[in-house]
Amino acid sequence: MTPQISTVIFDVDDTLYDQIFPFRQALIDIFNHPFTTEEIERLYFLSRKYSDDVFEDEQSGKITTEDLQVYRITQSMKDIGQAISKTDALMFQARYLYYQHHITLIPEVEELLNFLTKKDVTLGILTNGNKEHQQMKITQLGVDRWISKNHQFISGALPFQKPDQAVFKHIENALNLNKDTTYYVGDAYINDVLGAKSADFHVVWFNQRNRAPEGDVLPDYTATTPEALLQYFKANIS
């Protein structure tokens, strides 16, 4: 039987909004290449991988944010046989940022936020990334309508980041949560599933990209569509 759900903490990227939308549009605008849907999805996943590879170096100041941005798209394009210059990479990043300023909530996620609010469920955000950049996306999405500022946590403003269980413990203490009735919703297996589980949170893996798990730890539920994510909580909150 599903435990009582008192708190739901959300990731941001590819959880509250479709992260492929700004990525796809920037690719099409900048690069003179007839991308297939499969190539765009592959480039998206490669970009996430290469970003994760150097994320800690960027957070610690070993490399700049611009270095990370150039590296992830340059390496991703290289993997599909397309060599690009630093200038190309920076043009892509500028266009990517433009479209990130036009992101919107996934409709079913907006319905879920409304539903959880009506059920008096405590809501929060935990996202990795640069504080200003992630805050821009949170503001663009209008999340303040449901989640107060003091319930929004960005790793760039903290001494740790996902999947370190310390960041989940920080939220637990800051919000005085009961982890037995707290659920974390995110798209990344390592950062979100492994991270939240290491802190004994319940986890809903929003795996709409159908990625394979990278370990033996299982989420409490896997939602492969926005509809399934919405229905899971509607079915388990009276």
Automatic annotation (TrEMBL):
Signal peptide residue numbers: none
This protein's cofactor list reads: Mg(2+)
Pfam families noted in UniProt: Hydrolase
User: Which GO MF terms does the UniProt record name?
Assistant: metal ion binding; phosphatase activity
Keywords annotated in UniProt? Hydrolase, Magnesium, Metal-binding
**SUPFAM superfamilies associated with the record:** HAD-like (SSF56784)
Can you cite a GO biological process for this protein? small molecule metabolic process
Q: Does the record's keyword annotation contain Hydrolase?
A: yes
Q: What is this protein called?
A: Hydrolase
Species source reads Halolactibacillus alkaliphilus
